[in-house]
TrEMBL record:
It comes from Leptonema illini. Keywords: ATP-binding, Kinase, Nucleotide-binding, Phosphoprotein, Transferase. This is ATP-polyphosphate phosphotransferase. SUPFAM superfamilies: PHP14-like (SSF143724), PPK N-terminal domain-like (SSF140356). Residues 142-176 form the Polyphosphate kinase middle domain. One of its GO terms (cellular component) is polyphosphate kinase complex. One of its GO terms (biological process) is polyphosphate biosynthetic process.
Amino acid sequence: MNADTAKKAAIPQVQEPAKISDISSPKWFLNRELTWLQFNRRVLAEGQDPRTPLLERVFFLAVVGSNLDEFFMKRIGGLKQQLWAGVRRPSIDGMLPKQQLEACYPVVKDILGQQQELEETLLALLAEEGIRICQFGDLSQKQQQEMNRYFKKELYPLLIPQGIDPAHPFPFISNL
């Protein structure tokens, strides 16, 4: 290698950046709903990874379920309202509300299928560790009595307000 070649090798050639004619073009934007669903696929993948500790996998499964609940309440609900209102203005990525709904449903269906498979897998793994979800009727008499006591003392007062006024507003009840 001579001195001239060494100089050329040390200095990288700068290339002209690609010409972007219109940065507001929809082709430069991702759909908000579809990218949100892709994020949830990644969360689900964490739960599917056998290298992840079991209870963390359960946590990721729960997060996906909660996220999908919110997705339908807020995002799908909003798109349906736009559709019913006759909105014909596309989102920044160029998709109309109907197109977004049509694009979301197959992705959601796939996520739900994977979510169900993961739930079955995790329930089996939890059972191997002595953790199981059971029906009330499967509990012993003593366990049923304790559950009834807990419900009456801790939950029932939250569900049935005794009085509603400015000093005692209706208690917050999560939609989930």
